Amino acid sequence: MRIHAIMDKRKTAAASVTMRRRACVAVSTLAAAASLALCAAGTGHAADLPSRVSEPVFTPPPPPPAFSWTGFYAGVNVGYGIDHFAFPYIVTSGDFNATFQGRSGITASGPLGGVQVGFNYQLPFGVVLGVEVDNAWSGIRGQTTVNGVLVGGDRYGSATFGSKFLDFATARGRIGYAFDRFMVYFTGGATLGSVNTYYSAATGAPFYASGSSTSTRSGLLPHVGVVGIGGEYAVTNNITVKAEYLYDFINARNTNFSTPAGAVNFGTRTMYHIGRVGLNYKFDWLSPSATPVVAKY
């Protein structure tokens, strides 16, 4: 009996230790769960608080400089010219002193092409002042043939008159108004042109003659010169395209050719309506819209 009592006490003590251990484990587990809950609640509360770190501010890049027409430029042009004029003529055969005369007309036309250089300066409020010098090869030419009965003789006469506009140059001022990259302008100034005038005439044997002469004519406004209008557009800061109309007027005059067998006199003029298009490269010299070069270190 005593042994059984001792055994019962040991079992009771062991059970008490086991219960205390389980209670400690339960308490530890509850403490850990409570700690996790407190941490989660603290994190959620912190997320609701306003952040003291300022958000990054986006700074847009500076706008590109406004386009300006100020600067030197150089380019090429192509176009077409045309004119029609009436003129008097007289052909004299020296052997019989017989003549035939009248009035006729010449329509001269053809292509042309050349180069130009110039400078523009843009004032406030869009006003643009400039100068331009150009030179062009010309294929403008025309001729006419006339026939008639010689007065004072019993023969027929025939003659061909013609002119060739070989090349021309202008030195002009320009004044325009710019709508940002598009500009309209008026232009006018001096002109210079080389003109070849020629003829051939026959009134039967023994009179047959032909000849030509080349002269360079030039002048300034208002009696001689060139005037026109145009428009120009800047495709980029350096490339521009233009279209313009020019009226080139040099002069009108009588041309005389004399030979021992006779003489020819007829009128000519150098005045052409010219339409052309051009392509220019605008240099950045003196241009405020040029992109500055920034050194990087």
Using the coordinates shown, work out and report the CATH topology of the largest domain.
Porin
Given the structure, what is the number of helices? 1
Tell me the CATH architecture of the largest domain.
Beta Barrel
Largest sheet: 8 strands, antiparallel, barrel
Number of strands: 9
Shape: rod-shaped
Q: How would you describe this structure to a colleague?
A:
There is one protein chain. The chain has 297 residues and is an alpha+beta fold. The chain folds into 2 domains: 1-36; 71-282, Porin (Beta Barrel). It contains 1 helix and 9 strands; from the N terminus they run H-E-E-E-E-E-E-E-E-E. It has one helix at 2-48, and strands spanning 71-93, 98-122, 127-149, 156-179, 182-202, 208-219, 225-234, 239-259, 262-282. Strands 1-2-3-4-5-7-8-9 form an 8-stranded antiparallel barrel. A hairpin with a 6-residue loop joins strand 3 and strand 4 (156-179). The radius of gyration is 49 Å and the shape is rod-shaped.
Compact overview of the structure:
The protein has one helix at 2-48, and strands spanning 71-93, 98-122, 127-149, 156-179, 182-202, 208-219, 225-234, 239-259, 262-282. The chain is an alpha+beta fold and 297 residues long. An 8-stranded antiparallel beta barrel has the order 1-2-3-4-5-7-8-9.
Q: What's the SSE blueprint?
A:
Blueprint lengths: L1 H47 L22 E23 L4 E25 L4 E23 L6 E24 L2 E21 L5 E12 L5 E10 L4 E21 L2 E21 L15
Antiparallel strand pairs: 1-2, 1-9, 2-3, 3-4, 4-5, 5-6, 5-7, 7-8, 8-9
Short descriptors:
297 residues; Porin; 2 domains; eight-stranded antiparallel barrel; 16% helix
